[in-house]
Amino acid sequence: MNWTLLPAGEFDQHAARWQSLNSGAAATPLLEPDFIRALLLAFGSGKELLACCESGGKLVAMTLLAARGAGNWTTFQPSQAPVSPWVQAGAADTGALLASLLRQLPGFPLVLSLTQRDPELSPRPQDAPTLRTQDYIRTARISIAGSADDYWAARGKNLRSNLKKQRAKLLKDGVATRMQISRDPGDMAAAVADYGKLESAGWKAQGGTAIHPDNAQGRFYRAMLEAYAARGAASVYRYWFDQQLVAMDFCIEGSGCIIVLKTTYDESVPNSLSPTLLMREEAVRQIFDEARFARLEFYGKVMDWHTRWTDEIRTMYHVTSYRWQLLLGLRQLKESTLVRQLRAPRQPAPAASTPPPSVTTE
Fold this sequence. Notes:
alpha+beta, 13-stranded mixed beta sheet, disordered C terminus
């Protein structure tokens, strides 16, 4: 296996090769060149590498990499990317690819990490003397099969009753609900601005993580959504209570699935109402009715509400390759020692000894 290492800034020159690998194996909208390009433009430092692997004269893998301190490389992984930018031929051995790449990276690295992998897109490799996998998060999906009525009838009574009560309350209060779906590229800038207004009014504004049209997040989502919308593969869901925007989803589409990338809601809405779930109910019903997709993916950490909407839950994972078996052994020893320390019962603190009485000399 021979790896060629290039500046990540040359990605556009190799985008067609990247897409050929994605289409031939994982086939996910999350790894299409439009998504990767927007990530690099918004979050790249300029030091990332584009690595391309050929074996037997054929392209078998490509990835984007970033150095993470002395002796440590990892796949380029901004938090806005649900899966790592790594594409490979379906028959390629992930462990062997990582081992060969580790030995061809500059600076004699000791560890190479492939992060946030989806077992539905890339089967989890077996642990080996120099290869270790680790659970990341559990994530959920809804398979779109059968009718919307059948799907909804299979949901729990509490969920159906709760949403029915919310709609009855809104009707009683004279509040009209409306779901709006935007797909035009020209609508994406306004969608990002609207999303930012909702987030900036909530708790994310306090931590500085809210989307804004002028920050890196805002630039990423606008560029990415515009690119996908230009080929009919993006959708922005807005949900309204009368004239009040109360919830939004950013979604991308392709290869038989629709993926919810980002969700926000108006935190000023009373706790007795859940605009996000009301929007989700209408959106899911429409997705079933249209029958354009085979699955709806969430790609976030499973929350309690996910388990009410689906029982299709899987565990994503990381893969780490070590230059030597000894390094992996030392890592495992350190972790097992830490676990034992955390599990060990705490010893009561010794009682404070009574100081001897002071002696006053006159």
